[in-house]
Amino acid sequence: MTLNNILAEIPDSTLPVSPTPSGRQSPSRRETILSLVEMLLQESDVQRINIPQQPSFEDDGDIPSVDEYHQAEGAEAFRKFERSINNLDKELRNFSNAARQLGSSVAILSSAYRLRERLAQIHYLYQENAANIFPRKITHISRESISEFHAPERRPRRGRRRRRKAPLHVPRPAVTEQLDPECFPEQLEALAREVTTFLDTLNEFPEFTDEVVNASILSFEGDLKYWSSCLKEYVGQFRHPAVQRYIHDLTDEMGEHIDGITSSLCMFIDVGVPAIRFAQEHAANNLLNLSTVATFFSAVTATTMQFSYQLDHDAVSDAVNTMWFASMVFSIAAAVNSLLGLTWKQAMYRSPGNRVPWWVLIWIKRSPLVFLVLSVACFSIGLCCFTYASHQSFVTTTLTTVLTTFTSFGLAAVSAWFASERWTYARHRGQKWLSDVLIESIEQFIQTPVLCWIRTVVKFLGRNIEKTWAALLSLYEWLRNLCSSSELDNEGDDLEASGVPTTSGSGPSHRPSHLESSNPVKLGMSSVTLPVLTESPKPAHVVPPSALVNSPTEKETPLPEASPISPGRQLWLKAFQNVRMRNSMAALASTSGNTAQPDRRRTTSSGLPGPYDRKRAIIEPVTVLKSRISTLVPKLAALEATQDLAAHNALVRHLQFSPDGRFLATSSWDKTSIIFRVGDPFISHRTLAHTQGFVGQVAWSPTGNLLLTKMARGINVWTEGGVCAKTIDRDAAVETVCWFPGGEAFLSVEESIVTKLDINGNELDHYDFGRLKIHDVAITPDSLRVLGVGPLLESPTGLHPIKSRVENRLVVYNMETKMIENQTPVLNAVRDITIGQTPGGGLIVLIGSENKGPPQLWRLELVKDRGNKSVTARLTLRHTYMPKIPIDFSGRSYFGGKNNELVLCAGKAGDIHIWDQESGALLHVIRAQAHSGDLTCIAWNHAADNPYMFATGSHDGGVRVWTKIPEEPPFTDPTFELDTNADVRSQSLYKFPRSSSPLPQDDTHGESLHSSSLEANGGFAK
After folding, report:
1. What is the pLDDT of residue 935?
2. pTM for this structure?
3. Residues 255 and 344 occupy one common structural domain
């Protein structure tokens, strides 16, 4: 019996599905079995696919080849992207199952399924693309297996046909149409539309809004549109390896977006769906309560109508029947409309609120409550009229009318308050309450001109009345004092007789104490504090004589002393004196020729042992290209910092050896460039001073007789003797300069425009690169093409990325036709480009990137078109040079060795990595000292082959020369050697007080290269 037959025997009634509190549906046993079988089929299919794909190694089974490393890393990146898509598909399926219980969920269910279909198509295209790049790790999708795996299961027909419910377990949508790699831009754009549609349908639930989901989906949509717009420029090239690799590199960026949406969607399922369901159930309960009340009230109205329909036909009786019949009609309408609204809100296929006509929405939401209020009002009026029509007593009719009026007034007031709250919410969207609106309205009413005038009049009258009352009180006090003066005299005599002390002063002796305190101006404001006679038992306060003498109100006061300097001013004066002292000491030190050694940081070679263990180092060659690499490794291991030159006072920005190797030019942020004469030791040849700003680059001409120095907005042309032949000012910022192979002209890179200039500063031509901002250029040996690298300023449709990295491009520009012959997209931030030649005459291009982007080697190929016989250039990736561990690169890469056989690149930590250019094996690593690295630039001396030589610049302005330490000469007379070299060394120390002899290498800081094969295992080129 097959699996389908076994599953078919399981009835649906025995498989209940109950929603969980989190909004998810717990799967039934049948769904669990289906999921397990699906996973087993996938695992068996993967095992069947991976059986013949055994790892292939070259020459040695223990050391994987460069290509094997490249295949494994690319396959792992694709599998990570595949897991991200599978997780998102799973969450979309869970979301669909949870959203089925919500009203108006048909739109979100449809958009979720369409999004899953689009994800399946994207997955198919990316798997086909990865299978083309990594054929030994990723296989192509078999369309027969897809159709068999995703075929809907069929149940055997039974005698009685019954309706089947839609199963909650929905398989992943299958790709049924043939997708071509050229449709990548269209598919990405379609995915952006599906994602936007899903977000719109999700936001149509007004009960809950998740800002996290909105932000993640909107950023994903923006990047998808940016990628689609950029990829449209590569139509017809999606089968080229370079474009395929760029599309594969996008999986990292896209995977981050998908993972963010997956986590946000998972949270929305756990939090948002229950909140939406609670809000919808709350609204449904309100309608259900209204329906219940309306039904009950209609029964009450029908019962009371039995007492009134047989009354005599007069005006009051007719009014009673009219009101009660109207009340019954309104109550029935309220009940029916409540049930209608309840059914509409619970329907999954109903339209969202923003797509329903306003009058339909108002009728469904507001009519039940309005009809119920009208029914109650009509019944109350009819009840009052019934008391008069049935000839009740005066007390009954009066009391019924009063109570009905009171309850109706309360009902009207509450209804008005409720309507006002609704208006406030519609007007201010929850930012203000109704009480705040009422307070603001009252304040605005008070500020009207009429009320302001009335308030001014009242204040004026109030002030005048207060003054009048004060005058009357003063008059009363004066009359009172006048009448009681005799009594006060008698009381004073009695007090003196009884021995009670009295007040003494310059004023009247018998003035009342309360008058003295109330009018101190009239009392003369005496500086002497007088004891006051009061009824309190506390003793009088007597001021000591010292206070009387030193009173500040006396006429004789001491002269004011000079005010002291404030603490803040003292700090400023001290800081100013310190700055002046430091400046004077610096000037004194510069004029006195101080030869003190600066505190400098050194780097040590990782591949070279200490001076005592150098002979014990065992160098094993790499298995690939054994004879050549076995020669390179010892030469690289022998490199040490032999000279440490204190060239500049600020960061060294760029270095370059002259083509003949006789000179080394440096540039620094201290506004100087120095030309050194290469030798042992290096001697300063010329110092080139600049007044316009920092010197960012130096460039020797191919002939070696001219030197260019680049500033921010200018270029200086110098001769070999240090004479400034020409100063060329530019209107735009200059990124870099590059000589033509013949040395007759050079290129100045300025944003997207590359200008051809001669040595006199005349503009010979312009080359526009469009939307590409050029960082660096290189010219082919035939001077026909220029290669440029840089980021894209904007997409062809004017879009910018939101979260992903900006697209960078390698461009081949034909200077004769002034057309871009080839452009290759790359994701890493490329900063420099260098052209070199192989021993066979081929052209290779070295690209350097920033951050995590390793250097890459490309081959420049000339392809002849079969149609018009024209020759165009095309770039093909050969190697990606990988370090042993992921590091941040400083950005610039260099060729080294004979015939460009080496590739050098420095990390931001100061380590220098050296690879074999042809095989891509990591040969040597020069480690920075333990505390930090201060490396800024490298320059290789191509004229020095045995031994190798290169120079490095640092942040502190120092320049280090790396080469092999010369062997110790035979014993000679030290006095003679000292006399012959005294002049040279004194000259070096005089011109460079900060320079020092090479420091001995410490064996504890070195890292010996015990096995070159281990270095090769740690870092391979892709």
Report:
1. 83
2. 0.66
3. no
